[in-house]
Every structure is written in structure tokens, then in C-alpha cells.
Write a structure and sequence with these properties.
210 residues, mainly beta, Lipocalin, ten-stranded antiparallel beta barrel, 1 helix, 11 strands, globular
């Protein structure tokens, strides 16, 4: 399923004519260099509420992102105990300039820290982000920005409790999404799959670009 989705996304990103790209690999609309967004995502018995920001300087190929999220897990549905996980993250990305007029391609590296009671997790995601801004109609004030981001994640799980041993994990994730923007305001949807888990997660977001 994820191979079919990624193939369709690549066709859309590479074949359809587009305007000049700028950080479209992060889903930013038009030629914006910075944006803030809030979102809601769900997978199985968990719901995530988050905010994120992407900051860059006009004309620069380097930009950074930051995020914060809270995940509520309803294990009581399966006879367990409900709990909440808090996460903080930061990302540094570089846009490959020679490809900028065709498609926005950004290798990125990040760090994420999550904690729940006595359990903590430190993750290092490596990603290749691809995106493209497409004008909708004759006016460029309304645009569509599809993007995809395969990621390889190294993580370390540790706890203050002696009952839970330290664990090192590696996982492959895939995210795809699209934002529709009118001038500076944008709305979007995203679909991802945690290949180490049981199924896909779906989310929506809204934001403002400047």
C-alpha cells in the first residue's frame, strides 16, 4: 500500500508544472520561508495533538523546524491503563538549490525527546523530504503543496525503573501530505505509516505562512 501511495505522489510532484519552489518539502505554500501550524492525528487507540513551526530566511537554503505534541493512549479499551506521552522535537534541513525550480528536495536531521512518567525516549530521525507548490487556477494566490517524507529513525528507550531495561530501536517511517493555501492561510491533511507498528495514522492541520 505504501509503495502505491509513494509512486502516485512522485508522479504528481515531478510531472505537473509548478511555480518556483521554496521549502515546499515541508509543505509550506507558495514561496513562504516560515510557518506555524497546529494539528491533530490518530492511530489505533491513540490521539495526538501538536503544534509545529518552520523557520527560514528568504533566499537561504538552510532552515529549521520545531514541534511539540501530546499523545493520549487509551489502553483501557484493551484492559490496560490509559497514559499520556509528551514529545518535543527539532529539525535542521538543507534545500538542494539546483533542483529548486523543479521540485523542493531537503535532506534533514532531527532530534526528538519523549517522556511518560519514568520512561524516556530519545530519537534521531533522518529524512529526505520532497515537495512541490502547484497553482490552482490562473491565480497564484491559491495553491496546492503536496509533499512526502520517508524517514529512518534511531531511538533509545530508557527508564528510571530497574524493571524496564534500556532498549535501542531502528524503524522506517513514511509520511505523505498536502496543504491547500489561500494567500497565507493553509489547511492540510497527512497520512503516515509506522512500519514497526500495526497500521497507518491520519491527521489534519491548519496554519499560517509568512
Amino acid at each position: 500500500m505504501h509503495r502505491m501511495i509513494s509512486s502516485l505522489a512522485l508522479v504528481l510532484l515531478l510531472v505537473v508544472p509548478a511555480a518556483l519552489q521554496a521549502q515546499a518539502c515541508f509543505g509550506l505554500p507558495q514561496t513562504s520561508s516560515s510557518a506555524f501550524a497546529g494539528g491533530l492525528g490518530a492511530i489505533d487507540a491513540s490521539t495526538t495533538y501538536g503544534i509545529s513551526g518552520t523557520m527560514g530566511r528568504a533566499g537561504s537554503s538552510l532552515f529549521a523546524g520545531a514541534s511539540a505534541a501530546i499523545t493520549s493512549v487509551e489502553h483501557s479499551r484493551f484492559g490496560g491503563t490509559d497514559y499520556t506521552i509528551a514529545r518535543l522535537g527539532a529539525t535542521l534541513a538543507h534545500e538542494i538549490t539546483p533542483l529548486k525550480k523543479i521540485v523542493s528536495v531537503c535532506p534533514s536531521v532531527g532530534v526528538q525527546y519523549g517522556f511518560h512518567r519514568y520512561v524516556q525516549q530519545l530519537s534521531l530521525p533522518l529524512a529526505l523530504r520532497i515537495g512541490r507548490t502547484l497553482p490552482l487556477g490562473k491565480s497564484e494566490t491559491t495553491t496546492l503543496t503536496p509533499y512526502l517524507a520517508p524517514r529512518y529513525v534511531f531511538s533509545r528507550l530508557y527508564s528510571d525503573s530497574h524493571d524496564l531495561p534500556e532498549r535501542l530501536d531502528r524503524s522506517y517511517e513514511f509520511n505523505i501530505g498536502a496543504n491547500i493555501a489561500h494567500k497565507r492561510v493553509f489547511l492540510g491533511v497527512f497520512l503516515g505509516e509506522l512500519f514497526e507498528l500495526s497500521g497507518p495514522f491520519f491527521g489534519v492541520q491548519a496554519g499560517y505562512a509568512f
